[in-house]
Amino acid sequence: MLETLAALANPHRLRILEVLHAEGRTYVSQLARKLGISRPLLHLHLKKLQDAGLVLSKMELSQDGKSLNYFEIVMFDIALNPASVADAARSLPLSTKYEISERDKHE
């Protein structure tokens, strides 16, 4: 869940999901043009979404022999409630859990 929330915490990635949801399967160049961002930046965001299991990619050859990397959204339904947030928090390594600073202890 943490990886999913981290992936969704970026406005570019939300826009990518919005376009893929609205238009369906789309190849990278077309998606970059639609969003007005560079392909390298788009690839970075698509990798985060793919790692979180929110999109799938498939390389295909066009009729003129060009390689096109198509992406499509994976249907998901995330339950966000106090219990699911608590479960996610418990899965954090101890070194990243919130630690109370000395200043906070005195406030």
Taking pLDDT < 50 over at least 5 consecutive residues as the criterion, the unreliable ranges are: 103-107
Q: Round the Cα radius of gyration to an integer and report it.
A: 18 Å
Sheet-strand content, in percent, reads 5-15%
| Major β-sheet annotation | 3 strands, antiparallel
Please give the count of helices: 6
Instruction: Estimate percent helicity.
Output: 40-55%
Shape summary: elongated
Strand order of the largest sheet: 1-3-2
- Total strand count, please? 3
Q: What would your notes on this structure say?
A:
- This protein has 107 residues and is of the alpha+beta class.
- The chain has six helices and three strands.
- It has a three-stranded antiparallel β-sheet with strand order 1-3-2.
- Helix 1 runs antiparallel to helix 4.
- The radius of gyration is 18 Å and the shape is elongated.
- It starts with a helix and ends with a helix.
Key phrases:
107 residues, alpha+beta, 15% strand, disordered C terminus
Topology:
Layout: H1 2-8, H2 11-23, E1 26-27, H3 28-35, H4 39-51, E2 55-61, E3 67-73, H5 82-90, H6 102-105
Antiparallel strand pairs: 1-3, 2-3
Short description:
With 107 residues, the chain is of the alpha+beta class. Helix content is 50%, strand content 15%.
